[in-house]
Amino acid sequence: MTGRPGRPEESRAALERRIAKLERINAVLIERVERSIDRQGNAFSLFQTAIGLEAQVRSRTQELTEALRKLERSNAALAAAKEEAERANLSKTRFLAAASHDLLQPLNAARLFMATLVDLQGEAEARRVAMRVEQSLQTIEDLLRALLDISKLDAGLVRPRVQDFPLDACFAALEAIFRPLAERKGLRLRVRPAGVTVRSDPVMLQRILQNLLSNAIRYTRRGGVLLGTRQRGADCVIEIADTGIGIPEREHELIFEEFHRGGMTEGEEVALGLGLAIVRRQMRALGHRLELRSQLGVGSVFRLALPRGAGQAAMAEPVAAPPGNAGLDGIAGALVLLVENDDATLAAMARLLDRWGCHVLPVRALASLRRLAGGLERHPDLLVTDYHLDDDVDGLSVVARLRRRFGAELPAIVVSADHSEEVAAASRRAGCELLRKPVRPAALRALMAHLLARTPALAAPPG
Fold first, then answer.
1. Which parts of the sequence carry 4-aspartylphosphate (predicted)?
2. Contact status, residue 95 vs residue 111, Cβ threshold 8 Å
3. pTM, two decimal places
4. Between the CA of residue 365 and those of 312, 344, 353, 377, what are the distances in Å?
């Protein structure tokens, strides 16, 4: 019997091969499924991470936005506070400027009374006490003026009037002021003429040099003080050198702060500690540079650098040095019209002028002045008037009225506690001399002698 030998075995082998193939296919499929699941799991993780990051970014953005809003509110508050502080500072300065007349008025009367009291004292001890009181009044006056100057400089109310002018005129005025002070202390003051034209504000520059020279003399006990110049490129360098006590290096910046005082010994004049604070502010306003070199026990050198002027400028008028004691020559017998609306000041000034031998006609009200002027048998020799009078009348209008009556050559001194440049300029335009309150009796007396000496005798008033 014939058949198909080996067929079941072949079928089994084929089946096994098919099963093996299916197993391989199944393994591949499983692997692909697993990889696909892994990829989906990673994508989901990434998706979750992205969501988390987005939430964090949103949270940080919100925090940053809130911080920026707080910063804007803080900046707005700071700006408002700064503006309020500036308004307050300006208001303070305006108040001080407006109140300076009332602040200095009683001080002015006190100084005038003290000058009379000093003259009246017969005993040496009484004169010494009176002189001490007068020195105290001078200190109060200097303090008020310094505080007012600082306030104006801080508020930006001081505008430099820069011009070209010869420096020698300024040096001559400074030498006239400080040589007597140096000689009283036994010091040598050397002033070397500059022979150079500089570009600055002549009034502010002289105030700066006055403060520096005053400090140099105050803190020098032996030796001397030098005021001179040297050339540095396009600049002129003014030097104030002394052989004084010197300044420690740690205090080179502190000395320009308000109320910082150097070391003084018993019996020496006490400094206010405001001079160099004013110097720094004036230097900034002018744009000049100031250098300091100092060594303890050896001395100090202040160097002020400022631009040289072009060519030879016209002579600028620095702040006048107070004239020396002129005595009573040329004053005794003078007929002086005195116009003042403050009773205490009027009485003090009249008493002082009377002690100097003048014939004084004190007037408080303008109506009284008109009656008095109409009944005079001779021309007044001199007019002394306050600037601020009652009923919004200023002293310059009084000067103009009396000059129409007695002639344009009538010399006039305007006295004012208003230290503004406007009053000074108006007085110059009117041809009047200006004295600041509190009035220094010696300066008043010397100025009166000067005006009376240069003015010819006036004729009788017109009928």
1. 386
2. no
3. 0.49
4. 49, 14, 19, 21
pLDDT at 316 over 70: no
Q: What one-letter code names the amino acid at 253?
A: E
Residue 325's pLDDT band, with cuts at 50, 70 and 90, is very low
How many angstroms separate the CA atoms of 323 and 356, rounded? 17
Q: What is the mean pLDDT of the chain?
A: 75
> Dihedral (C-alpha) 263, 133, 343, 339: value to the nearest 10 degrees?
-70
- Map 50-89 to HEC letters: HHHHHHHHHHHHHHHHHHHHHHHHHHHHHHHHHHHHHHHH
Domains of the chain (ranges, CATH numbers)? 164-263+270-320 (3.30.565.10), 335-454 (3.40.50.2300)
If one compares 77 and 36, the residue with the highest pLDDT of the two is 77
- The residue to which tokens 């007597």 are assigned: 180
Residue 411: asked if its preceding bond is cis (omega within 30°), the reply is no
Q: Where is average pLDDT lowest: 69-78, 140-149, 187-196, 381-390?
A: 140-149
Could you read off the pLDDT of 54-105 as tens digits, one per residue?
777 777 778 778 878 888 888 888 888 877 777 666 666 665 655 555 566 6
Model pLDDT, residue 253: 72
Residue reference for tokens 């502190």: 254
Cα 384 to Cα 435: distance, rounded to the nearest angstrom: 10
Q: Which residues lie closer than 8 Å to 98 by C-beta, 6 or more apart?
A: none
pLDDT of 223 > 80? The answer is yes
Tell whether the torsion through CA atoms of 244, 247, 252 and 256 is positive or negative: negative
> CA-CA distance, 282 to 276, in Å (whole number)?
10
Q: How far apart are CA 384 and CA 362, in angstroms?
A: 10
Backbone angles phi, psi at 442, to 5 degrees: -65, -40
Give the single-character DSSP code of 297. T
Residue (of 403, 385, 404) closest to 394 by Cα position? 385
From the centroid of its chain, how far is CA 10? Answer: 120
CB contact at 8 A, 251 and 294: no
Q: Could you tell me the two tokens for 282?
A: 């004036």
Q: What is the pLDDT averaged over residues 424-445?
A: 86
Structure tokens at 366: 């303008």
SS3 403: helix
| Counts for the chain of helices (H) and strands (E), in that order | 10, 12
Rounded average pLDDT over 140-147: 63
